[in-house]
């Protein structure tokens, strides 16, 4: 899986104590032109977000973001210019098993798979 080791490292190492995180990872950051955050040049897809709302409650703290730009390498686009999940070699973190899992297989169609339940 591309970048799994570096992504996990970014999650466990704090930049406040380790100033050479990018150097250690072998990845390169550039400043976003849209938001106050870095963009990792090697990542095939980047969602640039701005903070829309900060929510604090008895259940925890949430940051809601608004996507203001999407950066995608041409190698992960389909013939219509849309991101193809099967091409990005993406993974998700599962906090229950403390593992990473590959994603990309389409298993249903949004706003259609459950439409049959809408009928009387």
How are the secondary structure elements laid out?
Layout: H1 4-12, H2 21-25, E1 29-31, E2 38-40, E3 45-57, E4 60-72, E5 91-94, E6 99-102
Antiparallel strand pairs: 1-2, 3-4, 5-6
Number of strands: 6
Strand content: 25-35%
Q: What overall form do the CA principal axes indicate?
A: globular
Mean residue pLDDT = 92
* Count of helical stretches: 2
**Distance N terminus to C terminus?**
45 Å
H-E string: HHEEEEEE
Rg estimate, integer Å: 18 Å
User: Could you list the spans in which at least 5 consecutive residues all have pLDDT below 50?
Assistant: none
Please identify the structural class as seen in this structure.
mainly beta
Largest sheet: 2 strands, antiparallel
Secondary structure: helix percent? 10-25%
* Side-by-side strand order of the widest sheet: 1-2
What distinguishing features does this structure have?
about 120 residues; mainly beta; two-stranded antiparallel ribbon; 2 helices; about 35% strand; globular
The gist of it:
The protein is mainly beta. The chain has helices at residues 4-12, 21-25; strands at 29-31, 38-40, 45-57, 60-72, 91-94, 99-102.
